[in-house]
Amino acid sequence: MKRTIVVTVLCVAMMLMGAHARAQALQSRCAQIGQKWVDFWNSNVQDATAMFSDVFTDDIVYFDIPTSPTQPLAQGRDQLLAIVPFFAGFPNSRFELGRSACQGQQGFFEWTWSAEDGGGDKQGFCGTGKPFTLRGVAVIEIQGNRISRDADYSDSATIPKQLLMEDPNSRSCVAGLLGLSEE
């Protein structure tokens, strides 16, 4: 009887330990995918091109919801790679990975983009040289360990607000970013 109880307790403990290990493996997989995404956006065009196939499928469908809520911003390898040079206009541009979770072929991860608004020979949004931060989340579909669909959600209106707070002289540029005209 005691032996049966000991064996049962050991079996239950092993199952629980295995469930925890599987949960960690799923989290690790999602965090790894998210980190590859972050590394991709932190890279230059040449490096992004080289790492593309480790991060995305060739038929990637990429949405930036604030920019284009109903249509993909990019479809396929070439269109997504064409977005990478945009970030060169922002000194100290840096993405960081936050929390992540995946289940099966779907998941999400939080990200933070910090940069400066141009300055010098870098255009940015208004060229103020002021720092800003944007937080968002990527909702992803996964094939293998690569992203096949990415919908990024963020409140990009926080960028003009930050630039205006930092530099009231950038009012006309910020108005243009918001689609408003100054009178």
Describe this entry's structure for a reader.
- The N and C termini lie far apart (88 Å).
- The protein has a single domain, classed as Nuclear Transport Factor 2, Chain: A, CATH 3.10.450.
- A 6-stranded mixed sheet has the order 2-1-6-5-4-3.
- It is 39% helix and 30% strand.
- It is built from 5 helices and 6 strands, in the order ααββαββββαα.
- Strand 3 and strand 4 form a beta hairpin.
What labels would you give this structure?
183 residues; alpha+beta; Nuclear Transport Factor 2, Chain: A
Write the layout of secondary structure elements.
Blueprint: H1 2-41, H2 45-55, E1 56-64, E2 74-75, H3 77-81, E3 94-103, E4 106-116, E5 131-143, E6 146-154, H4 158-166, H5 171-177
Parallel strand pairs: 1-6
Antiparallel strand pairs: 1-2, 3-4, 4-5, 5-6
Helix pairs in contact: 1-2, 4-5
The total tally of domains equals 1
Overall CATH class:
Alpha Beta
- State mean pLDDT (0 to 100 scale): 84
Gross CATH architecture: Roll
Give the overall form. Answer: elongated
List how many beta strands DSSP finds.
6
Strand order of the largest sheet: 2-1-6-5-4-3
Quick rundown:
By secondary structure, the protein is an alpha+beta fold.
